[in-house]
Write a structure and sequence with these properties.
Layout lengths: L5 H18 L7 H10 L6 H6 L14 H23 L5 H12 L14 H17 L4 H18 L1
Helix pairs in contact: 1-2, 1-4, 1-7, 2-4, 4-5, 4-6, 6-7
Length: 160
Amino acid sequence: MWTDTEEGRAFIAEVSKNVVSQVAPEEMDLFDELVQEYFDDPTPPDPEEAASDDALGFGLGGALIATTPAVAAMANVVFGFLLTEVINIAKDQAGEIAVLKLKAHFSSRGESGTGSPPLTTEQLAKVKQLASDQAKAFGMNDDEARKMADALVGSLALSS
């Protein structure tokens, strides 16, 4: 899938950086390393393993969960869903045009000249649910997952 390409990864990193700067600005100094770790191993962390890593026994293992990999995972799953949606809407158009339309939804440079239709309320709700579920899979609590999903959906809604 496109999200597994170098271009797709760069796009995921760009959008993720924007979201992380909003929800976890303290991670910006480590962003490049953390997003690369996600790309190297995109599987969610094992919560039981994190609990056993708490060598001092203070229960801080969960507090050390990085937001960046969760945001990258959210972006990856959301882009996969949206790419499928765009392709379904634009069946008669080539895959490259569908990717351009997807990029237009998240363009930080306002390059929305591709005629991309806005997302429906149902699509935005599905995106928010996918994003939230992915954040929780990466160890975020409900409140953190909601904030992260809102930031990602906000970047979609504002560019539509």
